[in-house]
């Protein structure tokens, strides 16, 4: 099968499944009470992302892993926020989106032909995302540091100094 055929097949199966689900909700009104779409609608977003990831794997189109991981990740964030009602978390959880890109790059690399470059880029984006999440979460999130926020600056300074010292010692051949 060609990529287009497999992609169309995956998309068609997803549409049929989604249509059957919504038709079942229409035909069996009592089911709507059990399935609270006002709380579970982010599963639709997650499903679209999973469909893109499925197309990346089964249609052998590795670049689709990147938008697939982004859409699935954002859908997961929306699900947590919708279930908890903590929508204010967007002030800092948006910083996870570069991490979703990193995951997509790693998956794309593993499915494609250049896993080393994709792995390095993906891990770098994951690290940047984690750092941004901690920094923004410290200022705006539930684990706010309050008046102790300068601790983050001190830690960042130690990381930069330590990294520079290790690089200098490695270049000069002095490793202790």
Give an overview of the whole structure:
This protein has two domains: 3-144, no CATH class; 146-176. The longest helix is centred in the C-terminal third of the chain and has 26 residues, at 115-140. α7 runs antiparallel to α8 (115-140). The model has no long low-confidence stretch (mean pLDDT 84). With 176 residues, the chain is mainly α. The protein is flat. The protein contains nine helices and no strands.
Sequence-ordered SSE layout with sheet pairings:
Blueprint: H1 3-27, H2 31-34, H3 37-40, H4 42-58, H5 65-84, H6 90-93, H7 97-111, H8 115-140, H9 150-172
Helix pairs in contact: 1-4, 4-5, 5-7, 7-8
Large-scale geometry: flat
How many E-type strands?
0
Secondary structure class reads mainly alpha
What composes the largest sheet?
none
